[in-house]
Amino acid sequence: MRMAGVIVQSCDDPPSVRELAPGQAATFGRGSPHSPVDIVLPDAAISRVAGSVLAVEDHWLVSNLSSRRTYVIENPEGGGEFIKVAPRRLEMPVPFEFSRVVVPGSDRPAAFYVFAPQHAYADISLTPDGSADATRTSFPLDETAKYFLILLALCEPRLRNASSPVIPTAPEILVRLAGLPGAAGLTRAAINFHIGYLAREKLRVKTPDDAENTKCDWQRSALVSLALQFDLVREEHLALLTA
C-alpha cells in the first residue's frame, strides 16, 4: 500500500515538488537567508514565513502566520469551491483532495498546489457487524474531476478503435475538451500538469530508466496502457466527452 501523506508543488517552471509524510510540514513565504522556507513566494508583500502546511494521513492542515492577510484555499476541481484562512489561524483542516493555496501579493496573488491523494472511502458493502469497511482503491479516480476528462481524452482513440496508435497531445486534448462544462479554465500547461499528476500520484506509472533523456511522451503512453488494461476508462465513459 502506498504511504499516506500529501504533496506540495510550486507554480514555478519547472515546479519544485515536496512530498510530506504524515507529521511532516512545509513552510511557505518570501523567505530570507535567515528565514528559509520550503515553498518560496517571491513577493515583497508576502511575509518571510507566511504559513505552513502539515500532512496528516490523507488530509492536511494549513496555518496562516500573517497578522493581517487572509489566505484562500481553492478547489480547482470544484465549481468555484473555496475556503478562507483567517489571519493567525493555526492548523486549519483542508477537505479538498486537490487544492490551490492563494496568498495575496503586491501586484497579483501568489499560489502553490497541495495534493492529498490518499483519501479513504467506505466500501459500499457492509461487514458482518454492520460497519462499513474502509477500503482504499488501487487507483482512486474521481470521475467528476478534470484529470479524469483528460485521461479519457487520452484514451478516446483507443476506446473507439482498439488498433489505433494515436495518443493525443496536450494541445489536441485542449481542443477536444473545449466547451465541456467540466473542462472550464483548462490550459495547455494545466493539461500537462494533470498528466503529470495522473502519472505520478493516481496511476503511479513506472518511470523508464532513460526518462531524463526522453520526452514526456512516455507518460501519456503509459497512462493509456494502464487505464485500458484495468478498465479505468471504458466505452460508456465517452458520454462525458459530449457537451
Please give a handful of descriptors for the protein shown.
243 residues; alpha+beta; Tumour Suppressor Smad4; 2 domains; 6-stranded antiparallel beta sheet; 5-stranded mixed beta sheet; 4 helices
What does this structure look like?
The protein is of the alpha+beta class and about 240 residues long. The protein has helices at about 145-160, 170-175, 190-200, 215-230; strands at about 5-10, 15-20, 25-30, 40, 50-55, 60-65, 70-75, 80-85, 90-95, 100-105, 110-115, 120-125, 130-135. It has two domains: about 5-115, Tumour Suppressor Smad4; about 145-240, no CATH class. The strands form three sheets. A six-stranded antiparallel sheet has the order 2-1-11-10-7-8, with no helix packed on it. The protein has a five-stranded mixed sheet with strand order 4-3-5-6-9, with no helix packed on it. Strands 12-13 form a two-stranded antiparallel ribbon. It starts with 5 loop residues before the first strand and ends in a 14-residue tail after the last helix. InterPro entries: SMAD_FHA_dom_sf. This is Serine/threonine protein kinase.
